[in-house]
Amino acid sequence: MNFDKQVSRPIVKSISSAQAEWEHWLYENHFQRLLDADGMEWELTIHAMPTPDEINIKSAKWNVTLSLAADVDAATFIRIGVLDTEEHERLLTKIADFKVPLRMKPIHHEARGENEARDLMMRILPDLRDNIAKTSMLEMKRNLLCRWIDDHSQFGAKERLYAK
Fold it and tell me: Which of 2, 44, 47, 149 has its CA 20 to 30 A from that of 66?
């Protein structure tokens, strides 16, 4: 490698300013928090990672991952109709004061450049928000809750359920 020759331009643009601009767009368009049809709020996180392109070695492709997550307490489960106070009393005692982490399967997309990745997100995010707003996910939430309780009840982790 020749250390005497200086690079004439920066290799990487300011990622922090591009990220700040992107986060500002998400915030202005209300994409960071999405409300579903059941009245529960989800947090959307977007991870964009440039990786070397196999076809053109002088460019990068962007792998974009969308993740929806929510930390839900027992009162929210009752409010949205996932649990009933009388019918699911045992489950409510297991939840106690915990916030149950609900995580949707991440959605992966690929783009050939930074601008294409932004254009892709500008098309996908409004559709995602609209689909979540009109689709009830009560059964999926109930399944994730039961899975969380099962995971915490195995291998001697019962003590953590009742610890405060």
Answer: 149
